[in-house]
Amino acid sequence: MERWRRCSATYGTRTKSSALVAVCIVCSSFSSNIFSHSRAAVSEVLSKFGKLDFLVNNGGGQFPSLGGDIKLKGWNAVIETNLTGTFLMSREGIT
To answer: Residue 75 belongs to a domain with what CATH number?
Structure first.
């Protein structure tokens, strides 16, 4: 989370334009595995820019340990972030 806070503080929303390309980068930090957060993030981009051209789904987490040592709570946390979060952001981005 700290890395995303620094990214957001450093880059916020930046635009670079040339005759051929205009690039806008938006860095956000939120819980992508919570439906309302995913919807709000995409809605913010759409209200600011009118469309979403690319989505980099880069959320993830892990609990490095041996397979036999992983608790169900840890497993569910990784699945929620890595799979459910990616699914929710992708679904919101294409609707």
So the answer is: 3.40.50.720
